[in-house]
Design goal:
mainly alpha
């Protein structure tokens, strides 16, 4: 769900184009995380201290792989990511685990079964080859197992990054781009919805309006 924005903030966002990579603030080109840093009054970086490391790990591959026009819909998330470095990433990891177990991985498994019987439908062998080369599905399965046994903050961040990469790869190569990008945006929405107001936030929480000058598991590998 896209949040409503006040007019000064909307004017700031209107001056920015989201791009892949960290961007160039002088040209008004930023990635979603460097936009968070600018709104928070931090230095130019894609690692703002005011943002959840888990959200950052998930958002960066989504930002970088999205088509240019679709990427702009991430802009309203930047002010929502402010202040999410709140100690609640374990709850956000639970959201990712549930989404992977009940939505994303079962859909991929069903799509592969369909494509196995009907060439050209569902997942392509090209996508599976990419997933195998990156060991993406095995990495996701290992991380899910480790988090199921407790895991660490590093495991949570690694799972967020792997989930973002998995969705981006599928969007680009599975023939269901809109579905997978919508899944990614919906997940980002859920991650941002974890209420940060109950915690002390180690970083600027308020947007600074002048901070931007107008200048189930996957099936076996296919043969």
């Amino acid at each position: 769900m896209e949040p409503s924005l006040d007019l000064p903030l909307q004017r700031i966002l209107d001056r920015v184009e989201l791009v892949s990579g960290v961007g160039d603030p002088e040209a008004g080109k930023l990635c979603v995380m460097s936009l968070v840093a600018h709104l928070a009054g931090e230095r130019h970086t894609d690692q703002p201290v005011s943002a959840s490391p888990l959200i950052r790990a998930f958002a960066i591959p989504i930002n970088d792989y999205m088509p240019r026009e679709a990427r702009q819909q991430l802009k309203p998330f930047a002010p929502r990511i402010l202040g999410t470095n709140d100690g609640r990433d374990s709850e956000r990891a639970e959201i990712l685990c549930r989404a992977l177990a009940t939505e994303i991985l079962p859909h991929l498994a069903r799509s592969w079964q369909v494509s196995s019987g009907s060439p050209g439908i569902g997942l392509s062998r090209r996508l599976w080859r990419r997933l195998r080369r990156w060991e993406m599905h095995r990495r996701v399965e290992r991380l899910l197992a480790r988090l199921g046994a407790g895991g660490s903050s590093g495991d949570r961040i690694a799972l967020a990054s792997a989930t973002g990469q998995l969705l981006a790869l599928c969007a680009r190569h599975a023939g269901e781009a809109e579905r997978f990008w919508n899944t990614a945006v919906g997940l980002l929405d859920r991650l941002c919805d974890i209420d940060a107001s109950l915690h002390q936030v180690p970083g600027p929480r308020t947007v600074r309006p002048n901070s931007l000058a107008p200048r189930e598991v996957l099936p076996p590998d296919p043969p």
